[in-house]
């Protein structure tokens, strides 16, 4: 179990990126969903040992990772949002280089370990191909291969599907779902579909605060019989948004299709019909309800001195 208690991060300025985050992440896949700038990447860097919190606690199976960040390394796999590869190395040579940097032990030899990892992420066919020739999805799978080395207890993946085409995204979903059976996987994303496809539970974060902890099924069930859809002329849209809680407005076949949330007993505009809620509806309503931060940065006691942070 990964546990966070009252986690705060204040950057010089001051800029408060995290405002007292409390979270328990069990074994399996868990999502962290929020817009850009919500504090997700700061949280991922703290959990991976790359950044110290201003205050708060982080424990993994009872191990204090704030006081002893060096103890995290044997248990962590990390795929950051931006991963730098040497384009002219082959996939197998790039992977071997990364594993040697991480100090991963290979009792049967590094070549054999690299072959096993490439097979696991379905890249054996491209092992000798230069990384510059890899697609975006292949690069992400290579990143997962290095993250899985050492059989980590905790795997952190930060915005892993950004930029992938639909086919590559589906392949990556299957790979993440497979590896999550054996460990805790924390998926940080701003893409609602990622959470809907992969995560039995997830937290929504905005302005450095956890707004909700729920499941896709629970989030949609909470909106049962409260979502309606209809057409609104573009010229009337501004006034319509002032009068109704609009979750989405998209063009469909050249028409402006609008989805609104109307609590029981609330009048529904003529021509609007009840429609099943989606996870995106639930997420967008949470974003609308999230209060803007008004208070100054929280006063925090600096985290205890520790050894230098250790990356993945």
From TrEMBL:
Q: Name one Pfam family in it.
A: ABC_tran
Instruction: Please name the gene that encodes this protein.
Output: yfiL2
**Bias regions of kind Low complexity — which residues?**
302-312
The alphabetical list of record keywords is: ATP-binding, Nucleotide-binding, Transport
Every ABC transporter domain range: 2-232
Q: Which residues form the signal peptide?
A: none
Q: Which Gene3D superfamilies has this protein been placed in? A: P-loop containing nucleotide triphosphate hydrolases
What family, per the record?
Belongs to the ABC transporter superfamily.
Source organism of this protein record: Corallococcus coralloides (strain ATCC 25202 / DSM 2259 / NBRC 100086 / M2) (Myxococcus coralloides)
Protein name, as recorded: ABC transporter ATP-binding protein
Which PROSITE patterns does the record cross-reference, listed alphabetically? ABC_TRANSPORTER_1 (PS00211), ABC_TRANSPORTER_2 (PS50893)
From the UniProt entry, list the residue stretches annotated as the region Disordered. 292-312
MF terms in GO = ATP binding; ATP hydrolysis activity
């Amino acid at each position: 179990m990964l546990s966070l208690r009252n986690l705060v991060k204040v950057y010089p300025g001051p800029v408060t990126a995290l405002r007292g985050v409390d979270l328990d992440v069990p074994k399996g896949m868990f999502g962290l969903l929020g817009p850009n700038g919500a504090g997700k990447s700061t949280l991922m860097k703290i959990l991976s040992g790359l950044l110290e919190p201003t205050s708060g606690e982080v424990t993994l199976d009872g191990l204090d990772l704030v006081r002893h960040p060096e103890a995290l390394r044997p248990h962590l796999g990390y795929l950051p949002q931006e991963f730098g590869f040497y384009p002219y190395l082959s996939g197998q040579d790039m992977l071997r280089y990364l594993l040697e940097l991480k100090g991963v032990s290979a009792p049967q030899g590094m070549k054999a370990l690299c072959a096993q990892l490439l097979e696991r992420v379905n890249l054996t066919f491209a092992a000798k191909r230069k990384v510059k020739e890899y697609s975006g999805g292949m690069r992400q799978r290579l990143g997962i291969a290095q993250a899985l080395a050492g059989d980590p207890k905790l795997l952190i993946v930060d915005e892993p599907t950004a930029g992938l085409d639909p086919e590559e995204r589906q392949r990556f979903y299957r790979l993440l779902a497979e590896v999550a059976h054996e460990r805790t996987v924390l998926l940080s994303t701003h893409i609602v579909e990622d959470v809907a496809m992969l995560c039995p539970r997830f937290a929504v974060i905005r302005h450095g605060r956890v707004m909700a902890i729920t499941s896709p099924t629970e989030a949609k069930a909470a909106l049962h019989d409260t979502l309606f859809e209809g057409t609104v002329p573009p010229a009337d849209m501004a006034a319509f948004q002032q009068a109704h809680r609009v979750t989405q407005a998209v063009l469909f076949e050249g028409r402006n299709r609008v989805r609104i949330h109307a609590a029981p007993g609330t009048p529904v505009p003529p021509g609007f019909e009840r429609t099943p809620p989606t996870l995106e509806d639930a997420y967008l309503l949470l974003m609308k309800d999230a209060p803007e931060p008004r208070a100054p940065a929280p006063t925090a006691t600096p985290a205890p001195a520790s050894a230098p942070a250790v990356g993945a």
